[in-house]
Amino acid sequence: MEMGLLKKLFNQHAAPFREAHVRRFLEAELQRLGIPHFVDPVGNLVLGADSAKAYRSKVTKKSTEPVRFFIAHMDHPGFHGVRWVDKRRLAVKWYGGSPTKDLEGARVWLADLHTVFGSAVLRRAKLTKSGRSIDTAEVVLGPQLAKLPLPDAKSLYGGLSFRAPLWSAGTRLYTKVADDLCGVYCIVSLAKQLYRSGKGHPNFLGILTRAEEVGFIGTIGHLELGWLKGARRPLINVNLEASRTLPGAEIGKGPIVRLGDRLTVFDPGGIRVLTELAQKTLKGRYQRRIMDGGACEASAVTAYGMRAIGISVPLGNYHNQNFEGGPDARAALGPAPEFVDKRDLQGMLKLCGALMQSGLPWETAWKQTALSFKKSLSTYRVQMRGGFSLDSE
Ligand SMILES: [Zn+2]
Question: In the predicted model, what is the mean pLDDT of residues 256-272?
Answer without folding.
Answer: 96
